[in-house]
Write a structure and sequence with these properties.
Helix content is about 40%, strand content about 15%. With about 220 residues, the protein is of the alpha/beta class. α1 packs parallel to α2, α1 packs antiparallel against α3 and α2 runs antiparallel to α3. The longest helix is centred in the middle third of the chain and has 22 residues. Bound molecules: magnesium ion (MG). Magnesium ion (MG) binds next to loops.
Length: about 220
Amino acid sequence: MHAIFTDALAVLFDLDGTLVETHIDFGKLREATLQLIAQYGVDTTPLQSLDVLSAIDQAADVLQQSGALERSAELRTRARARLRAMEMAYCAAPRPVPGVYDLLNALKARDVRIGIITRNDRQVSLQTLQQLRIPHDLLVSRDDVHRVKPHPEHVTIALQEWNIPAERCVVVGDYWMDVEAGRAASCRTVGIWRQEVAVNPFRNHPPDLLVRELRELL
Ligand SMILES: [Mg+2]
């Protein structure tokens, strides 16, 4: 077991790309979401650079500020439902990342709690976790927080639930938002720069430990 886990009472893992491969096409999710937003008459130009959840929030805020409260709520509901349906389809045949069971079982054998923190829909995440029998003690999905990663709320919910101090918790993920959420909550952080990703996703948010694959943590 890697030294980063010394004294750890809990480890929080991102799901997609960290523990499982689900082939979610984030470009298509964004495209479909922006199309829906455009149908509500909201200018999508300033939303192009945002991640999909932030784009939905911002578009709903624009409608709300213009007084269209019902349309704002309707857009939020429809966009989230469309996102869930697309994620469900992409996650139909998930695969475990190499080494995932060895690592999680080794942590369990040391009585380390395992949490899953994901920006995915709760139902889609549960389906993936059950399908692959990924051992875990807690799931904090986007439906369980007010603000998703990089906000630290996913992490603080888990720490409060377990009554564990942040310095005894490690956060592991394959995107800078995972590292930022962990860092903002004062946890140790591990970034996984996957082999197929050309540019270091952590270049502006360096983790305490950078690895190229999950197996290096064993
Ligand atoms: Mg990920």
